[in-house]
Amino acid sequence: MTALRQLLGGQRQTGVLLHLTALPGPGPCGGFGAGARAWIDLLGDRGIGVWQVLPLAPTDGTGSPYSSPSSFALNPAFVDPDQPEPAWTPEQRQACRRWCAAQDDWLPDHARFLVLRQRFDGQPWWEWPEPLRRRSRGALAELDREEAGALQREAERQWWLEQQWQQLRRHARSRGVQLLGDLPFYVAHDSADVWSRPSLFSVRPDGSLSEQSGVPPDYFAATGQLWSTPVYRWSRHRLTGFRWWLRRLERQLDCFDLLRLDHFRALEAYWSVPGGDRTAENGRWQPSPGDALLAALRRRRGSPLPLVAEDLGVITPPVEALRDRFGLPGMKVLQFAFDGDPGNAYLPHNYGGGSWVVYTGTHDNATALGWWSALPAEARTQVEDLLGHPVQSPPWELLRLALASTADLAVVPLQDLMSLDDRARFNTPGTASGNWSWRLEGPLTDLAGHLDGLAALAARYGRGIRR
Q: Which end of the chain, C or N, has fewer beta carbons within 10 A?
């Protein structure tokens, strides 16, 4: 039995990908309130065992949760407006103090970062006055005195968000629904993480980047992809026993049952680009100590590790070996399967004996309907040859292939269950606007038929249905 199947209760399971922002509710986006509880109930009533979300962190200016000002904080936009604010009884005050003390390695600097960002009208930290940019002890002590009330409110806000999320997690557990989270590999340049621990990242004393992240040129991008986030100074992380990384991982594992590691291949080797470059062409591969890091996590958390390796793209044998040494499942995306090559690794009959999470598509892909609309005729023919019949409903045909596969977990974005076109697409990589904003219209009860169909199809293909 694979490690993932063990974590899933011994059977192949089914999940739905839906970020909290897309849930209905009274606020500007969905969150930790009644909509999330009702969604969990819809899944639990049908024995659908996994709900996958995107990172719960605060977003950047474009709304992306993958470029957050904090690797540890929860997004204040998710607060449940229907729950009254804490009355701050002695019991609540004491509980808040205990929790804040346990988060002392990130919470004070997160609060300082937000207060200073507001003070300086949103300027990035490397443009702040030098004593604060360089974090002189005197400047921080003065800030703590002057802004004591604001700093306390930020800490209390995080505690309250934590209470709401853990309450939601307990509800999911009671309904037999596991929560699958997502962790970006890199952190934003303008973040509390980099400001508070610059020695761990590739930043110069003035805050500029000495190296930056990305991926090399390929068929899809002639100059590669430049992500403009600092890379890790892995030698410094080794010296601390990976303290920051381990704390980051454990914080996420305290919030989720399973965790997807985005850009997993960078744990084996990462593409490092000179800090001043405008394209990723002049980067070079540098080794990463992923083996030592994952071994340290396993010593702390035990085995099996509840992690999913996002191993999409051009993956080398050393990356596969790292994934397999720790028993981590990889990912398969059916939209990538139909290029005319019968040996394509994303085709279900090529999954072999490994452990996999299969998706019809992810948050970065077109919807299945949008994908089919843009698919060349020869690729459509390949899909129909594999199915043995003409395609009538592209999203549900992909879903059938996912559910029938040997993958331990089959995940479908809700947009595909609803047969929505690309107007419901969540994110288009490489674009700076129009993303992260899709939201459900109408009551959640309208989804009952779609979820009934998923549950019935999952049972037909022998996927465990939790009750």
A: C
Phi-psi region of 274 (alpha: psi -120 to 50; beta: other; left: phi over 0): beta
262 in catalytic set: yes
pLDDT band at residue 363 using 50, 70 and 90 as cut-offs: very high
What is the Cα–Cα distance from 55 to 187, expressed in whole angstroms? 12
Nearest Cα neighbor of 457 from 386, 405, 403 is 403
> Does 190 participate in catalysis according to the annotation?
no
Would residue 144 count as lying in a domain?
A: no
**Predicted local distance difference test score (pLDDT) of residue 27:** 84
Q: State which H helix or E strand residue 284 sits in.
A: strand 284-287
Q: Are 355 and 7 in contact (CB under 8 A)?
A: no
Burial of 320: CB neighbours in 10 Å, binned 0-12, 13-18, 19+: middle
Q: Among candidates 336, 352, 356, 353, which has minimal Cα distance to 344?
A: 336
- Choice among 41, 45, 364, 421 that is catalytic: 364
**Could you tell me if residue 119 is inside a domain?**
no
pTM above 0.70, yes or no: yes
Look up the domain containing 367 and give its range: 3-75+175-460
Catalytic residue among 147, 154, 310, 416: 310
Can the peptide bond before residue 376 be classed as cis, meaning omega within 30 degrees of 0?
no
Closest CA to 319 of 215, 211, 429, 188: 215
Rounded CA Rg of the chain: 22
From 262, 268, 397, 408, active-site residue: 262
Question: How many percent of the chain have pLDDT more than 90?
Answer: 94
Q: Is residue 135 part of a domain?
A: no
Indicate which CATH number applies to the domain containing 201.
3.20.20.80
pLDDT digits (tens, 9 = 90+) for 397-433: 999 999 999 999 999 999 999 999 999 999 998 888 8
How many domains are there within the chain?
Answer: 1
What local confidence, expressed as pLDDT, does residue 272 receive?
98
Minimal CA–CA distance to 31: which of 73, 77, 84? Answer: 77
Helix (H) / strand (E) element for 176: namely: none
pLDDT digits (tens, 9 = 90+) for 281-334: 999 999 999 999 999 999 999 999 999 999 998 899 999 999 999 999 999 999
Is residue 272 one of the residues assigned to a domain?
yes
> What tokens does 71 get?
């690797």
For the cut 80, the answer to whether the pLDDT of residue 465 exceeds it is no
Cα atoms in the Cβ-side hemisphere of radius 13 Å centred on 1: 11
Q: 300, exposed or middle or buried, with CB in 10 Å at 0-12, 13-18, 19+?
A: exposed
At residue 84, the pLDDT reads: 87
Confidence at 466, pLDDT banded by 50, 70, 90: low
Query: Active-site residue 41, yes or no?
Result: no
**Helix, strand, or coil (residue 49):** coil
